[in-house]
Amino acid sequence: MPAAQSTTRFQDVALEPIREKVLAGTRLTAEDGLALYRTHDLLGLGWLANHERERRHGDAAYFVWNTHVNHTNVCVATCDFCAFAAKPGEERGYTMALDEVFATVAALPKQVREVHVVGGLHPDLPWSYILDMMRGIKDRRPDIHIKAFTAVEIFFFHRLYRMPVERVLAELKEAGLDSMPGGGAEIFAKATRNRIIKGKADAEQWLDVMRTAHRLGISSNATMLYGHVESLEERVDHLLRLRELQDETGGFVTFIPLAFQPWEAPAMKRPATTGFDDLKALAVARLLLDNVPHVKSYWIMITPRLAQVGLSFGADDIDGTVTEEKIAHDAGASTPQVMTVDELVRLIREAGRRPVERDTVFNVVREW
Ligand code: V47
User: Could you give the angle at the alpha carbon of 84 between the alpha carbons of 83 and 86, nearest 5°?
Assistant: First the structure.
């Protein structure tokens, strides 16, 4: 976007006072957040988010050589949007034997730096299965970073195994867990959360698990599921609650807006998000979350084409090779399940950015 726009007026005058704040580094308010979500001046919003993105990261665009392992889809929770989960006893439920998990990890190319492990809330797995999974992955690949278990899973382990959250996390860390993904946050607003989710951690519990994790030195990501029944006010509230916790702990590394994939969702018939909404989700997050270092444009959910555009609308990261994604694809996503590093590098270069391969916590692995 042309720098000249910093002195020309935005199409939407409501963005003018926000530009002043962004240029002065003044924290944005809930009202500002709402004005940003409501605007149709996508280029004005994009200019602001890109300004902030380039101030922090210049022309770098990060990616990671990673893979997903979903060890089980058996889940006692009921989430209207989730097509991945299977109730205990349902025929489509599966649980990987640990040897299967280990064989998957052992077969990974040596360049893979991160394994992202999440599963359903399985009521019958022993705690030893969870810990042995961490240990077994580390035994086979000591160099790989294990990003595992959402705050919702950790809260479930705390209840199921009757241990304080702190102990659950400490034992996982000891067994090899390095950091946590940001899933399970969905939307924090109570009434909406209760309407679409039954039987898993609420907002306070999700945030509290993250607070504890950060205190124990386990960094994490954060997400927001958007494009379902939530309001714009609730999106702003969600981001500000994350910002508040981040002020306290500093433990969030990356924020990832997750676009609702409606096609196979069991109990939520909605149209898919639009390009405007997806770009706004990235841009508003970049501007409101002034204390979170990275914003991820997740190609699995918004397509590689739009994720690439997202690199000019506030995002500095494009996730990675991923491999074997199940949650979005069970919900009917038509995006690929894997991207090669060459494809990622091409997307980034054609966006005018500099591809930087990273590890999970943004140590630079290689400049491409
Ligand atoms: O928690 C479930 C979401 C999340 C649907 O931390 C859906 O680096 C859209 O959190 N449409 C899991 N979303 C994915 C996730 C994630 C992904 C990539 C990177 C990271 C990270 C985290 O997926 C769930 C839930 O919020 N989800 N169903 C659906 N139909």
Answer: 95
The residue assigned the tokens 């590098």 is 345
Q: Maximum distance among all alpha carbons in the chain?
A: 62
Coil vs helix vs strand at 270 = coil
What pLDDT does residue 156 have? Answer: 98
Q: Which residues of the chain have pLDDT under 50?
A: 1-5
- Check residue 222 and give its pLDDT: 98
User: What does DSSP say about strands 354-358 and 60-64: parallel, antiparallel, or unpaired?
Assistant: parallel
Q: Using one digit for the tens of pLDDT, what is the confidence trace for 202-246?
A: 999 999 999 999 999 999 999 999 999 999 999 999 999 999 999
Question: What are the two backbone dihedrals, phi and then psi, of residue 317, each rounded to the nearest 5 degrees?
Answer: -135, 150
Q: Which residue has the tokens 């939530």?
A: 230
Q: Tell the CATH topology of 59-367.
A: TIM Barrel (3.20.20)
Q: List pocket residues of ligand 1, CB cut-off 6 Å.
A: 81-83, 150, 181-184, 186, 221, 223, 225, 256, 258, 260-261, 265, 298, 301, 327-328, 331
What CA–CA distance (Å, rounded) separates 184 from 187? 9
**SS3 letters across 101-167:** HHHHHHCCCCCCCEEEECCCCCCCCCHHHHHHHHHHHHHHCCCCEEEECCHHHHHHHHHHCCCCHHH
Q: What is the pTM of this model?
A: 0.97
Asked if 63 and 53 touch (Cβ cutoff 8 Å), the reply is no
Q: Which atom of ligand 1 is nearest to the CA of 331?
A: 30
pLDDT at residue number 323: 84
User: What residue spans in the chain does CATH classification 3.20.20.70 cover?
Assistant: 59-367
Q: How far is the CA of 12 from the centre of ligand 1 (A)?
A: 32
Q: What is the per-residue pLDDT for 6?
A: 55
pLDDT of res. 340: 92
- For CA atoms 317, 322, 327, 332, the dihedral sign is positive
In degrees rounded to 5, what are phi and psi of residue 259?
Answer: -75, 130
How far is Cα 74 from Cα 317, in angstroms, rounded to an integer? 31
317: β partners:
62, 296
Residue 7 confidence (pLDDT): 63
